[in-house]
Amino acid sequence: MTGAPAEAVPMVSFRGVTKRFGTLAACDDVSFDVAGGEVVALLGENGAGKSTLMKTLYGIHPPDGGEVLIHGRPAAFARPADAMAAGIGMVFQTFSLLPALSVRDNLAMAWPGTPWYLGKRGRNVRGALAHLSQLAPGINPDARLGTLSTGEQQLVELAKVLNLDARLVILDEPTSVLTPAEAERLYGLIRAIAADGVAVVMITHKLADVEACADRVVVMRRGRVEGEGSAAALSRAEIVTLMMGRTARGDDPRGLPEKPPLPARPRPQLLLRRVSTGDQTSDARDVTLTVHRGEILGIAGVTGNGQTALAEGVAGIRDLTDGEVLLDGSVISRRRLDPRRKLHIGYVPENPRENGIVAGLSLETNLALRSIAERKGASRRMTSSEVAQRLAEYDVRPPEPARAAGTLSGGNVQKLVIARETGEPREALLMVFPTMGLDITATAFVYDRMVAAAAAGAAVLWISEELDDLLALAHRIAVIREGRIMAEWPVTPGLTRTEVGASMTGGPT
Amino acid sequence: MMDLATLFFVWGLASLTNATPLILVTLGETLGQRTGVINLGCEGAMLGGACAGFGAAMATGNPWIGMAAGAATGLLFAALHAALVLGARANQLAAGIAVWTLALGLTSYIGRAFVGGKVEALPSLAGTWLTDLPIIGKGLGQLSVATPIAVLLVLAAVWWLERTRTGLSWRVAGESALIATENGMSPTLSRLSAVLVGGCLAGLGGAVLSVDYTQTWANEITKGRGLVAVGLVIVARWNPRLVLPVCLLFGFAETAALRLPAMGVDLSSYVLSALPYAVVLVALVANQITFRPGAAMPADLKRVFQ
Q1: Where are the bilayer-spanning segments (chain B) (predicted)?
Q2: Using CB atoms, which residue from A99, A110, A116 is nearest to B183?
Q3: Which of A3, B22, B72, B229 is deepest in the core (most CB within 10 A)?
Q4: Structurally, how many domains does chain B consist of?
Q5: Pair (A322, A447) in one structural domain
Q6: Domain of A289?
């Protein structure tokens, strides 16, 4: 598995590419090359800057510093259309396809060769189907796209990109939506495309992807290239170490709180028995977990492995297809039971701006949302002084009760949600990626509150990708992959991030 | 008493004649909605077309000029809707109602001069090769030339949407403006052209109604047909092919309302004149029950209700 001849000018060269969002450097001085005919796996954890880097190339986020060379010439694309015209195609995780139209129409709409008159049964756009019939001869061009499986839709998207005569194809987490058999087929297709001289960049966090079809590996971590090398030369352990970082963050200035002591006699408080929300890899599948009173159970996993479904299933937002959830001995996951039982769970959802607040309503109303659901009478609602006190206590800034919640910054939105969800004692607390996108102080605040809730006796189920934080604060860690719990450990000094990380990415445990 | 086959044939021809204006309006609304624009103002465009068409035909004595004036007026009202919706990004439903009420007021005012006016209808098919057909030829001869034109326009719309790249870009715009843009198309241009074509068809439908079918001008002559068309688009599942049968259903109900009294059915004329609308209502509900609601709805239309 060798790339193009060494003397050839690289298809794409990144030279010191930097991209900032506010104070955060999503990409920091990134340099590497991709040659024609070469498959490069761009590896890294979520938020490592892989997708951002590719979007700087594709004209979605023009870089703030450095440059991109195409065939040795500087190129700066302001729009995806310009990048496409230069022979760069990107297959996103969410396809740019229309489920209501036929496969043929979906390809014809993007094919440069589509004539004005399409002809009877699309006779004149047969050329648009050429790549697809090579990739997947079994797909009926007259079928509605929406009737195809996700894997087949991805192939249609890939054919669409190849139809643009792409010389560089970027695939963003291509196997995350595929079944193992579909992934195998995709690996073969990627090799075949590369054999035609196309350069391929595959953004991924799966070691299996690397082993199956990459020539070279570039590992990113926190916006920087942490290492690169030929796929054959790097061992799994080396790659995992590069992805996860060499050391735990001992010198981290964020000041994590102390882990709360477990009660002397642990009592099971939140029980998940064979919980399933479906049978996709993004569903929770057959999850059995116990969280004790006062305990923090951390769920580690790479985003998209069923965490959202699991949390929503436990919170009662999503119906379970199987299994049950028990809180303090009584089942809370059956519909007919008193829905108010669910209100004993505090729920800090993923992406709180979208899922945790009503953006157009005031801080005061957002704080009171649970009281409304609990049908408290006016007498039981918070008085305005209580609201002011709560906002101050949770450091929501600016502490103006009448301000619309949507105008708050991300950290303050999260504080507001936590103020509502943990402001009163809860039997269980469910937190989903609670520090994602937050700065150091807001992160520390979130952890303080989580630890305080546990100390007050709540069973805390904490879904996170931050391995260092999980190791520092959770009493136990379970790993979720493809919707299933793959491993579970009590957190001891002997448990390393490499061990947990390997389980998250499907490496040897 | 006529035998059943003859009765059916005669009623069928009458239904076609009744339905012709509605076919044009419904077709126009279907095209607009396929690109993602709901135009409640098509009632206004139809009304405007009926009024201007009647005025022009009355003044010139030429029904074809009436048709042209009707289509042009429909175009103007549609342009206003497009300016509000695509230009000013106004709410589609509110903009449509504004256009409709504007047309209602304007036509009441301008149309006063046309009350009692006389116009010449479009030529009938009598004398064409169609009348040489066996059995049905004689009946076809009674149809106005407007009817085959409407049928041909339906076929042309099907051809346009399914066989041309521009038609494909209209369908893409109706599914997702974002994806249309990503693929190098201009959804705004698609929507503008479809709304304008739809307005032309609505205006033409209005002119056929006043000049050719009733040959009179009366205030609010369209009696809500433009709004019925909006409902029929749903019954036809946004498919121009189904515009014909669905409009014929309304036409058939209207024929029944007109002819049942002559056959000795003793029902209040008010009840009878409500019949076609009741039929549309039943069809709409039956359609919702039978088919998955919204399955065929252009995906970007849902945005209108958010």
Answers
A1: 64-86, 93-115, 135-161, 267-287
A2: A110
A3: B229
A4: 1
A5: yes
A6: 255-345+426-509
Contact A118 B182 (CB under 8 A): no
At A472, phi and psi to the nearest 5? -80, -35
Instruction: Report ipTM (2 d.p.).
Output: 0.88
Query: How, if at all, do strands A12-21 and A65-70 pair?
Result: antiparallel
Cα-Cα-Cα-Cα dihedral sign, residues B87, B90, B94, B98 = negative
Residue of chain B whose alpha carbon sits nearest to that of A90? B182
Q: Do A82 and A94 belong to one domain?
A: no
Judgement on whether residues A116 and A66 belong to the same structural domain of the protein: no
Nearest CA in chain B to A83: B182
Residue A116: which of B162, B165, B185 has the nearest Cβ?
B165
Contact (Cβ atoms closer than 8 angstroms) between residue A12 and residue A35 = no
- Length of chain A equals 509
Task: Assign residue A290 the CATH number of its domain.
Answer: 3.40.50.300
Do A108 and A145 belong to one domain?
A: yes
Contact B182 A114 (CB under 8 A): no
A-B CB pairs within 8 A amount to 48
Helix intervals (H) in chain B: 4-34, 42-60, 63-82, 92-111, 137-140, 146-163, 165-175, 177-182, 187-207, 225-235, 243-259, 269-290
pTM confidence score: 0.71
A327: left (phi over 0), alpha (psi -120 to 50) or beta: beta
* Closest residue in A to B169 (Cα–Cα): A109
Whether residue A104 sits in one domain with residue A82: no
Answer yes or no: do A124 and A150 share one domain: yes
- A375, A390, A423 - which closes a domain: A423
Q: What is the CATH number of the domain that holds B94?
A: 1.10.3470
Say yes or no for a CB contact (<8 Å) between B163 and A120.
yes
* One pLDDT digit (tens) per residue for chain B, 306 residues: 558 888 888 889 999 999 999 999 999 999 999 999 999 999 999 999 999 999 999 999 999 999 999 999 999 999 999 999 999 999 999 999 999 999 999 999 999 999 989 999 999 988 788 888 877 787 888 899 999 999 999 999 999 999 999 999 999 999 999 888 878 789 999 999 999 999 999 999 999 999 999 999 999 999 999 999 999 999 999 999 999 999 999 999 999 888 888 888 888 888 888 888 898 889 888 887 877 656 688 888 888 876
Closest residue on chain A to B295 (Cα): A100
Query: Residue B121's domain spans which residues?
Result: 2-305
**CB-closest option in A81, A110, A117 to B164:** A117
